[in-house]
Amino acid sequence: MSHLRDIVDRVEIAALRDEFADAVMMRDPARIASLFTPDGALRMPNIPVELVGREEIRAGGERLQARWNFFVQTTHPGPIRLAGDTATGRAYIQELVSLRDGSSHLNYAIYHDRYQRTPDGWRFAERVYEVRYLDTTPLAGSAPPPTTTIPTSTSEEPS
């Protein structure tokens, strides 16, 4: 049974990381904050930003997102190491960002994670964002104009 529990835990932690990436892409700082334990921390030493607790994480997310013209984050799974009701892991990130000040960034980074099992499922106890490569060369492309044909929810039934 322990083996099955480990598989379930790994799937749930992977879903947590996916949910974080989706919340960032959908500009939903309240949802981002809900993915952390009440005293969880989001640390981004390269920026530098350190947010502790759900309210700081939500407010910090709003401040960061207000600076973006557009932001695209792609997450690639890394290892997960289980230890009962806690776990550690990494997620590998590629990001494109165009900022309102006219600057842009292409970067590759790593989230170093600590996870905690809670009554509501797995949550981040801590995410530490480490940039490994940064290119500030102006991006050649841009975001297309908004369209009304893109679904805004993942709950829609496929046709």
Descriptive account of the structure:
With 159 residues, the chain is of the alpha+beta class. It has a single domain, classed as Roll (Nuclear Transport Factor 2, Chain: A). It is built from three helices and six strands. The chain has helices at residues 2-25, 29-34, 54-65, and strands at 36-44, 49-52, 68-83, 86-99, 104-118, 121-135. The protein has a six-stranded mixed sheet with strand order 2-1-6-5-4-3. A hairpin with a 4-residue loop joins strand 4 (86-99) and strand 5 (104-118). The termini are far apart. The model has no long low-confidence stretch (mean pLDDT 92).
Write out key terms for the chains shown:
alpha+beta, six-stranded mixed beta sheet, 159 residues, 6 strands, Nuclear Transport Factor 2, Chain: A, 3 helices, 26% helix
Q: Which regions contain 5 or more consecutive residues with pLDDT less than 50?
A: none
Oligomer description = single chain
Which word captures the global form?
globular
Strand coverage percent: over 45%
Radius of gyration of CA atoms, rounded to a whole number:
17 Å
Please estimate the helix content: 25-40%
- What can be said about the biggest beta sheet? 6 strands, mixed
Do you know the CATH architecture? Roll
How many structural domains are formed by the residues?
A: 1
The CATH topology is Nuclear Transport Factor 2, Chain: A
Q: Average pLDDT, to the nearest integer?
A: 92
Q: How many helices does DSSP assign?
A: 3
- Look at the structure and give the CATH class: Alpha Beta
> SS-based structural class?
alpha+beta
What is the N-to-C succession of helices and strands? HHEEHEEEE
Spatial order of strands in the largest sheet = 2-1-6-5-4-3
Alpha-carbon distance between the two ends: 37 Å
Strand tally, please? 6
